[in-house]
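Hey L., structure's done. Input below.
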Amino acid sequence: MRHCWNRLRGLCCPLQVKPAAPPPGHTVTSAGGVTFPSTSHRNLVASRELINTMSQTHDAPSSLQLCRIMRPDDANIMGNVHGGIILKMIEEAGNIVGSRHCNTQSGQDNCVATLARVEKTEFLSPVFIGEVVHVSAEITYTSMHSLEVQVNVMAENIFTGAKKLANKAALWYVPCSLKNVDKIMEVPPIKYASAEQEEEGRKRYEAQKNERLETKARVEKVMPPLPNAERYTVGFSQSSLIHLVSPSDCTLLDYVHGGVTMKLMDEVAGIVAARHCGTFIVTASVDAINFHRKIKKGCVVTVTGRLTFTSARSMEIEVMVDATSLVEEDNGKYRAVSAFFTFISLDKDNKPLPVPPLKVEGEEEQRLFEEGKARYLNNKAKRMKERQ
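Output:
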């Protein structure tokens, strides 16, 4: 009995130390506890709405709710829950509800929902070790061969019962047959509350489909960094991670889970950001993640991250995942996944720090910088519009 109590006490102890409460008009953003202005009211309203509706939605056939307590091995170096862990949990919930729904239609092969795309994801509030994370997933649109899953992440303090909205995400899946992984199955339709809801879903479907095709055609090359690169240049902070895909990383189809890939991408992006700043860093947001091709068990994946743009308070990092089969030599190396991650720099008190400017060298880096600046200004304009 004493041994069990000690284990429980050790699990919950990290909750005793938390960052100071943010000032009025601010909200704690991302997995690291930084304060950003003017989103607290919107997040509070959204949190209350989700808390009120969670009990009504998780029993629906096209929805699902998962929860688990955050353990010390889920932490980043700052002691909060790693952003990649949250991304992995989001994908797991989406995969389950998508696969479950696609197998409700009789007369066709059993199938598994395969992740094709994740829309832009904001890290709205930090999640602490010892908190219980509730991940609710609901199918909000279906086409003939794909489905959209909306996922919300709530973090609960088990001592006070207080809940907060940590993340929101939209994911797109396609169902692949268990008998033939290259065969895309039909998706059973869902019932919509109104014709307007269905039309809005169709617009989102067309938009993501077009953007996914554009991104696939725009494959950037991974350039090797120059030796002894100057500090604050792209080459100085560029980083790569090599990972052998094992059975524990894979779905029933022996292809890697999307959540595993996203966690690796977040880790590499974090290394790039930390090397550039030399400080603590946290994930602020992730732009759309496009899954171009599947990664099979036994493949070696190379995850490369490089800085493309810096503002006064943030860093944009392009992350590319390339895969090579150890067995099938004819396939060669191919681009599997790509995305842009945004990180911020923090001091020891979890307060935002200025980001050192990126030293751009050459036409290629200048082009990437200008494209990153355009994305930054576009996202900033969207945030301003939401506040109005």
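The CA atoms of residues 313 and 354 lie 5 Å apart. Confidence is low (pLDDT under 50) at residues 1-60.

-- N.
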